[in-house]
Amino acid sequence: MGKTVYMPDSTLSRKSHISSMAQYLDMYKSSIDTPEEFWGDIAKQFHWETPASPNKFFSYNFDITKGPIHIKWMEGATTNICYNLLDRNVKSGLGDKIAFYWEGNDPDDYSRLTYRKLLEEVCRFANVLKSKGVTKGDRVAIYMPMILEVIIAILACSRIGAVHTIVFAGFSADSFAERMLDSKCKVVVTTDGVWRGQKLLCLKEICDSALERCKKLGHEVETCIVIEHLPRLSASQNRNGITEENGDISPEKRNAFGSKIPWTEGRDVWWHEEMEDASTSCYPVWVGAEDPLFMLYTSGSTGKPKGVLHTTAGYLLYAASTFKYVFDYRPGDVYWCTADVGWITGHTYVVYGPLANGATSVLFEGTPFHPDNDRYWLIVDKYRVNQFYTAPTALRALMKFGDEPVKKHSLSTLQVLGSVGEPINPEAWHWYYKIIGHEKCSIVDTFWQTETGGHVITPLPGCTPMKPGSATLPFFGVLPVLLDENGKEILGPGEGYLVFRRPWPGIMRTLFANHERFETTYFKKFPGYYCTGDGAHRDEDGYLWVTGRVDDMLNVSGHLLSTAEVESTLSAHPSIAEAAVVSQAHPIKGECLYCFVTPNEDVEFSEKLTDELKRKVREKIGPFATPEVIQHAPGLPKTRSGKIMRRILRKVAQNDRDIGDISTLADEGIIEILFQNRIEIK
Ligand code: WTA
Predict the structure, then answer these.
(1) Rounded to whole angstroms, how far apart are CA atoms 544 and 110?
(2) Domain check: are 387 and 528 in the same one?
(3) Which residue range or ranges hold the AMP-binding enzyme C-terminal domain (predicted)?
């Protein structure tokens, strides 16, 4: 580990914002020694309706033994993030600049939006939200695909101080309902449907079941605003499409295209009808620096999702500065992040970071495989993309098709290639570097979390020497520490728990309506530190290598899941007595779910049961959580006190007979049976 070092391309270094390690180290030092000055300088480019009180620029407590955890940046300041992203850029002459090129699932569908037009549309939708009674602090749920309206909806919320809570449109109705219930949202914004590759997703239908479920559980969402997206797509996309798929739903409403959409009068309204008469100006609501901007649910190791809450000023500073430096964005560049807005990467690096820098981005609705496996590279050439940001799982899936689909395209405009969501394996790194980047691009392997708001460990283009598989060094203001099991700091090379000693501006402030869980989850194990839940290794050059989760979480195709969540879904099935789930390595997804189930006495384990269980997990959590393997376990290995020994189950999944100490195991006999029933991953 850590032998091969790739130096940044010298042409890139000459023009990059941070062009040498000496410059990085210098800036890093000042960000740590004098954080108020460092971030205060960055804050100067933005508009503050009221400036921050100089003596209260930054305050925090990270030590739970000394009192409640709190983090505050720029206390006393007021601002509006939407104003900073749009009005400020239009005023400085970027009105006609393209904010987004939209590329549809079908290559025949595309459009664009300038900064000026985006501002107008945002104002109109902000007025629509106001007309539905949304005011500062109210939550608005967003369940939408990657279309321009999702950006408009997000920014309209922030313009009036409403808190958006985006739910990834791949989540099932149940997961969506759980999130709407927890956030007590007033309004939901959705879309009739969307094509992903060859598949039509009827989002409004899913949204309807979620709304119904949410109501049953005690929370009624007042308004559902629906975007009519399908009818405006190209004929080729809608060929023999929608009417059939949307079938016989009633009561229904027909959209202009003739397809049927389930409809509840009094609650559901069309976006285009509401927008028609809405004014294109809307005065921004000035909010406090520490007022909430958005919440986003992420998996928790106990199963119940956590509503990670981000606030205004610090998040703006951090999204803006990480975007500028980590992608080395310069005016005139075209940037493309393939992440969905339903994940944190979409929040910070599709919406807030790029717009805060007046950048031009690509927003892509489709998949890397449609209509062909070269779609990403086609788009890179079409828009002359300079910075490209994706996930290792996508790279691995594309590598399978060899180099030919890539070689059809020039990719000559690329300069920075980003990776996010999980450790990038050296094989994928090299493919990215050589085949996509032609050995002249900087690869930025960005480590961060929903909770961190932005990149915390990352190389900088043109600056940091790269090692395939290492996220390298901390971003400005970030103080990473490795701890051993006893909470002792590991200095120099070694491996331990990855924690942070001090907050940077973009870190989460709390879990929505549950500060206690926030403190227990992140600050209890090691008082004085924010605990990431990941392990890491530090090499002799001080480079960090994130090794993966240390809790009961796993990362499937870059999506974080808790094994507890899947276990409770499986064991809720009437034929199942007990279930245990472990993570298993997967060649494309990175990790996948390997499930052990014990059926009830009178139930026979069958293919039908396996299919049913898989379907249940899909329905309950979402398609990305579908188990790879469901193995019959007549019994589970347990300690004498009845705790399931997942360590042993992991060994079974890996077919590793070296299972270590089993002295606490109640019944040894079960192990051989489990090995015999083992299923190989295809
Ligand atoms: C993992 C995604 C290694 C890690 C932005 C983290 C990574 C979790 C990397 C957060 C990386 C993310 N190298 N591991 N470059 N990036 N992770 O909240 O386990 O969806 O804790 O945020 O993904 O996932 P989340």
Answers:
(1) 41
(2) yes
(3) 565-643
Q: Tens digits of per-residue pLDDT, 505-554?
A: 999 999 999 999 999 999 999 999 999 999 999 999 999 999 888 887 88
563-571 and 607-620 are packed helices; what angle lies between their axes, rounded to 10 degrees? 120
ipTM of this complex prediction, to 2 decimal places: 1.00
Which pLDDT value is given to residue 242?
40
- Pairing outcome for strands 223-227 and 187-191: parallel
The number of distinct structural domains making up the chain is 2
* Confidence band for 667, pLDDT divided at 50, 70 and 90: confident
**Residue 576's domain is classified under what CATH number?**
3.30.300.30
> In this predicted model, what pLDDT tens digit does every residue of 254-309 receive, in sequence order?
665 556 789 999 999 999 999 999 999 999 999 999 999 999 999 877 668 899 99
Residue of 310, 422, 475, 499 to test ligand 1 pocket, by largest number of atoms within 8 Å of CB: 422
Assigned domain for 246 exists: no
Host domain of residue 633: 557-677
Beta carbon of 449 within 6 Å of any ligand 1 atom: yes
**pLDDT, tens digit, for every residue of 5-43?**
999 999 999 999 999 999 999 999 999 999 999 999 999
680 CA distance to ligand 1 middle (Å): 27
Residues 563 and 530 placed together within one structural domain of the fold: no
Q: Is 326 in the pocket of ligand 1 (CB under 6 A)?
A: no
> Is ligand 1 within 6 A of the CB of residue 591?
no
We report the CATH number of the domain holding residue 302 as 3.40.50.12780
Residue found by looking up tokens 């007979």 in the block: 657
Q: Is the CB of 546 under 6 A from ligand 1?
A: yes
| φ, ψ of residue 80 in degrees (nearest 5) | -145, 125
Within a domain: 157: yes
The answer to whether the CB of 223 falls within 8 A of the CB of 207 is no
Each residue of 354-368: b (16+ CB within 10 Å) or e?
A: bbbbbbbbbbbbbbb
Chain-centre distance of CA 666, in angstroms?
41
Supply the pTM of this predicted model: 0.91
So what's the pLDDT on residue 248?
Answer: 39
Most ligand 1 atoms within 8 A of CB, residue of 297, 326, 555, 559 to mutate: 555
On whether residue 548 sits in a domain, the answer given is no
Nearest partner of 449 among 299, 598, 606, judged by Cα: 299
The whole-angstrom separation of Cα 413 and Cα 30 is: 34
Which residue's CA is minimally distant from atom 3 of ligand 1? 423
393 against 251, higher pLDDT: 393
